[in-house]
Amino acid sequence: MNLLFVAVAPICLLGGLVAVVVAIYSFFVMLQNERPDNRTWLTSLLGPLILFIPGLWTADGNAARLRLIYSLLVFGACFLILNLLGVGQK
Taking the model in full, what pTM does it have? Predict the structure, then answer.
């Protein structure tokens, strides 16, 4: 094992784990801060597109929505780095 693998792999594993926990928390905070006039049917119809529509949320909901998007990007970057390092491959 080289030094890059030993130094980067645990950081990416921990970063990915933290990113997933932050994403789950941010998702539930985002859902709690929906605007009252859109609460009944609009979010259930839009599905995954709710991440890209800031008009559905209050100010706290928009902050949680952005935290969710950023944490998913961090998780994707950590997963890509681990994949490039060959973690879990024979």
Answer: 0.80
